[in-house]
Amino acid sequence: MTIGTSDATTQLAAIAPPPVRVPPIARAEYAARIDRARALVAAAGAGALLVNAGASLRYFTGVPWGMTERLVAMLLPVSGEPVLICPRFERGSLEADLTIAADLRFWEEDEDPVALVAEAARGLGPIAVDPLMPFAWAEKLRRTATTLVDGAPAIDGCRMVKSAAEIACLGEAKVMTLEVQARAAAILRPGIAASEVIRFIDAAHHAIGGGGSFFCAVQFGRATAFPHGLPGDQRLREDELVLIDTGCRVHGYHSDITRTYAFGKVGQEVRDLWDVEHEAQAAAFAAAGPGVPCEAADAAARVVLERAGLGPDYRLPGLPHRTGHGIGLSIHEPANLVRGDITPMAAGMCFSNEPMIVVPDAFGIRLEDHFHVTDDGAAWFTRPQPSIDRPFG
Questions:
Q1: What residues have CB less than 8 Å from 127, skipping those under 6 apart?
Q2: What does the alpha-carbon distance between residue 59 and residue 31 come to, in Å, rounded to a whole number?
Q3: What positions does the domain Peptidase M24 occupy (predicted)?
Q4: List of domains in the chain
Q5: Per the CB 3.0–4.6 Å rule, which of 158, 161, 265, 333 could disulfide with 326?
Q6: pLDDT averaged over every residue in the chain
Q7: Residue 209 binned pLDDT confidence (cut-offs 50, 70, 90)
Q8: Of 366, 210, 183, which is closest to residue 273 (Cα–Cα)?
């Protein structure tokens, strides 16, 4: 797809969802996740795992609800049926979404849901608590004389390593977003507003079957120097750098792809640092593999940057943040490609790879693709950007 050679109407009309879609996660896989969590909880010396509404509850039960002020949670005993605690008026919705057998316990608006948790947890011993459980609820549970321990080892121990079905969902989402990125580049023109590009990308993500954009950042020129952009609605000018970062979801699994490219002519410093960024991304990928500590990929990228006179560490000009993050049902999840994260990579782990270069108040370059760890190395979900002038080959 060539930059700036088309229009939104033409590009949207040309989009079609994949002819064969990836299926949702099967019920048997949810059952296997429950069994795995029980084993990890038992190994940690706890009697049950308490999982809050959000991505982890979806992972174990299929219930795709976000956290609100009303407590929705699963108490998973090491032995015995899972207990789902939920407002009574949500019963029908819960039963429609639930993919596992569970003991459903409901609370009315004038009742205390934490008391239901405490009752279900009585006699089970220490409770491993979801690290994203709000403090107020966890503290109230602790005051019932229940011993609470960190549930992250059990939850992350399950979620970090993706199954073949999860990798397929992630792969479809990323292929969708890469096509949307290419079509967005085609509609660019001098004077186009960032908001118009954002609206197009959302419509394109709908048209291709991704349910719209989960997020979208469109940055031009100087704004590319700020990793998460600047306020206001920019308009594109000739001979500026374009940075677009966006993603969608397939069965809850995320894409998150960034492209940085020239709209017209850009200076030699920009071109030289684009090449350095490209090399750093490749170095992080080459470092990945089973048994490799996550921080090694970050270190490999920084070697390239420091050799080019950038940094060191987080100093600018250079890379101001981690090289990458885990991705799955959450767009950012453990483990991370960052110094200090010594989690050994394992086949099935999935990461972003985005060692952004920032030149303060001037420009920034971020190339972001994702890979999954294989038995003998790593595999890209999407082909990295080949050049600053040909972002999609």
A1: 46, 47, 48, 49, 50, 75, 121, 141, 146, 147, 148, 149
A2: 11
A3: 171-375
A4: 27-159 (3.40.350.10), 161-380 (3.90.230.10)
A5: 333
A6: 97
A7: very high
A8: 366
